[in-house]
Specification:
By secondary structure, the chain is α+β, with helices and mostly antiparallel strands. About 55% of the residues lie in helices and about 5% in strands.
Length: about 700
């Protein structure tokens, strides 16, 4: 069992139980701090060893580079030219290998592994320890002052007693504030360590394995050159053997008879603009030198700052429209938006001044923005016929033109465009229902139009579901759904969620079925859009479910909301085909947990090592002289040649659309010994468990592996 959450309300009581729980958190924090120190120490040792090895290889490469062959005569054969340049080729190959090592490992190792861990210790653990000292200091000061105040006698003056009470109240507030800040920071660092510690190690291992893969590729590139150089060396050796006999005869003649041998129009407006670039971790502003031709409406953007992550190239865009950016919609000044024919998204540009912005907008025939009022009426966010029509139109648009888009539903659209879509649709509905339609309201919204991109449609759908007056899966059933997701028995989880789904009001269940069947359809294209049922659970868990009271314990249950949605997606056909056979009022109570959860993490270290086939050596046939003769086994006395490394074993199975459909159709067998894997992680764990039990053969053909997208 993990640590129980620290509720903020416990800070005001400061009970012994609260202090004991806080001490458990502090011990766990100290253990984590020691673990990070060990990783940093051993990581620095590993990085130092890699650096020393790289320095030695580079020195060896420089030694090879510095040597130059001197040949006799004024002309070299092709084979001699190959040999003369061989050391430079060796040095270049080694230097290329070390350049890759420096770029992938040495230069990035500290940034990938050491600095993030040190930053976590400094910014998270260090701050937590400082707040711990402040908490203990304020606690000691408050209780000391409280004891002195309680020991005051009634013989003191009333003014002195009131002053003492005031000081105690002031110290009490300081103590409560320190306690709240300390508990908040303690819980935050406990949650952040789950990813802030693992991510640096994962990134370092990725760079290490990527370098090993590049080394293998360089080895494959080296093989043709090695074969050609070996042929040149053999030819040169043969020439030397034949020439040596002639040289021996000449030497003999010289000895016998010493005397017989003699010695290859101007843009409309131009200037600097800053462009808002959206990345995975936020937004940045990139400086461009822009040229705009009004006749052709062609905008040329030359980047002035090169980012280390992605190299920026010159852009040539044909302008469609230009609109001034509203001041309250962005925290930058002098901004305006442009739309182009090449891309669907809107570019946000920042001029150098207000006068400069006017010049650019005048040249581009810019317009003033159209002000739309956001949705404020509560009836727009109710589960009614209008909401059903809106959801169906969004689903049809996504499945028609955006189901293959990478990151669908994960990528967030512009808030301005989302509000514009919501106002356009729901204002249209109010206009149609009104006895006197307002001519200023827009017409019916066509989501198939190119004006609405997929990000805007999906964000509007999530906005509608998230802002319902009551979540789709209701406050009443929230606790029961969370308890079902926490069970370690897979069958009980499915039965409980199946039963609870039919306790929803009819209109809620109809909307839930509409949403879940759509998500199943989206997940069936996971190879293209990279959105699996687990990804959808993370996105739609907080959207379809939420607790009525926002407490720390409720925040800790968000991950179980995601599990509920994931189960609904993976077992959609079974759940929505009809109510369960057991129609009791409450789901069955699961048996008490005796053993930990039955989840098995993926692992590679426990697999049985495979026996490799004997190494083969290609030797030329002496009789035929053909260098590409039949391979034969290498004897113990022969030197180890450079051979192609054995291919990696097959990857674990990935979740493909066909596999998902088969899993949805499969029914759990009562009394069976094996459970159907409910996620990709479970399927891979089962794969490695079965692979470790599989007997290996002494000789087997090396399989041709076709890597999947997820591997």
């Amino acid at each position: 069992m993990g640590h129980p959450p620290l509720e903020f309300s416990d800070c005001y009581h400061d009970s012994p139980d609260f202090r004991d729980r806080l001490k458990c958190y502090e011990q766990e924090l100290d253990r984590t701090n020691k673990f990070i120190k060990d990783i940093i120490r051993d990581g620095n040792s590993l990085i130092s060893a890699i650096k020393n090895y790289s320095i030695a290889v580079q020195k060896f490469s420089q030694t090879l580079q510095s040597f130059q062959f001197d040949f006799i005569g004024d002309t070299l054969t092709d084979d001699e030219l190959n040999i003369a340049e061989s050391f430079k080729e060796f040095a270049g190959l080694l230097q290329e290998l070390e350049d890759e090592r420096i770029n992938l490992l040495i230069n990035n190792a500290t940034d990938l592994l050491i600095k993030p861990l040190e930053q976590f210790r400094k910014e998270q653990i260090g701050v937590t320890k400082e707040r711990r000292k402040k908490f203990e200091k304020d606690s000691e000061r408050f209780y000391s002052l409280l004891d002195r105040n309680l020991n005051l006698t009634t013989k003191k003056k009333e003014s002195q007693l009131q002053e003492s009470d005031t000081q105690v109240d002031k110290e009490r507030m300081n103590f409560y504030e320190s306690s709240l800040e300390y508990v908040y920071q303690m819980q935050e660092v406990q949650e952040r360590k789950k990813f802030d510690i693992v991510e640096p190690v994962l990134a370092f291992l990725h760079s290490l394995f990527t370098f090993n893969n590049l080394s293998f590729e360089l080895t494959q590139d080296f093989l043709p050159y090695k074969q050609q150089l070996q042929l040149s060396l053999q030819n040169t050796r043969n020439h030397f053997t034949s020439t040596r006999e002639e040289m021996a005869e000449l030497l003999k003649r010289v000895k016998d008879f010493p005397q017989s041998s003699k010695l290859p129009g101007t843009p409309t407006i131009q200037g600097y603009l800053y462009t808002q670039e959206k990345w995975a971790l936020g937004t940045t502003w990139v400086k461009y030198y822009c040229k705009y031709d009004k006749d052709s409406r062609l905008l040329t953007m030359i980047p002035m700052e090169q980012k280390p992550v992605a190299k920026l190239s010159t852009l040539e865009l044909k302008l469609k429209s230009c609109v001034r950016r509203k001041t309250d919609s962005i925290d930058k000044r002098f901004c305006f938006d442009i739309e182009t024919h090449e891309r669907q998204r809107t570019y946000t540009l920042q001029a150098l001044s207000e006068a400069d912005r006017r010049l650019w907008m005048q040249a581009m025939d810019g317009r003033e923005p159209i002000y739309h009022s956001p949705i404020t009426k509560q009836e727009d966010m109710e589960l009614n016929e209008t909401g059903f029509k809106f959801v169906r139109k969004c689903i049809n648009a996504v499945e028609t033109k955006g189901i293959n888009c990478e990151g669908v539903y994960r990528t967030v659209g512009s808030n301005i465009q989302v509000q514009k879509l919501l106002v356009a649709f729901f204002a249209t509905k109010r206009m149609k229902l009104s006895p006197q339609p307002d001519p200023k309201c827009p017409g019916d919204v066509d989501l198939q139009n190119s004006d609405w991109d997929i990000k805007t449609i999906t964000s509007a759908l999530k906005f509608y579901l998230r802002n319902l007056s009551e979540p789709l899966m209701t406050y009443k059933l929230h606790g029961d759904l969370i308890l079902a997701a926490k069970s370690d028995i897979v069958d009980y989880r499915l039965r409980a969620i199946h039963l609870l789904s039919y306790k929803l009001p009819d209109i809620n269940r109809q909307m839930l079925e509409l949403i879940i069947r759509h998500l199943v359809n989206v997940c069936s294209f996971s190879k293209e859009n990279l959105m699996t049922s687990s990804n959808m659970g993370v996105i739609f868990g907080p959207t379809l479910m939420r607790a009525q009271e926002e407490t720390v314990a409720a925040m800790m249950n968000i991950k179980f909301q995601n599990i509920v949605v994931e189960i609904l997606i993976e077992h959609c056909n079974k759940i929505f085909s009809g109510p369960p056979e057991d129609t009791t009022n409450a789901p069955p109570i699961p048996p008490p947990r005796i053993t930990p959860r039955r989840h098995k993490p993926i692992t590679l270290t426990k697999r049985t090592p495979r026996e490799r086939p004997p190494i083969l050596v290609h030797t030329p046939d002496e009789d035929s002289g053909d260098p590409e003769s039949t391979p034969k086994a290498r004897t113990p006395g022969e030197k180890h040649p450079i051979t192609r490394p054995p291919m990696r074993p097959p990857d674990p199975p990935s979740r493909s659309p066909n596999q998902q459909k088969q899993e949805q159709k499969a029914e759990p067998v009562s009394g069976g010994t094996e459970d159907i894997p409910s996620s990709v992680v479970a399927s891979r764990a089962k794969f490695f468990e079965e692979a470790s039990k599989r007997p290996t053969s002494l000789s087997f053909p090396v399989p041709k592996v076709q890597l999947s997208d997820e591997s």
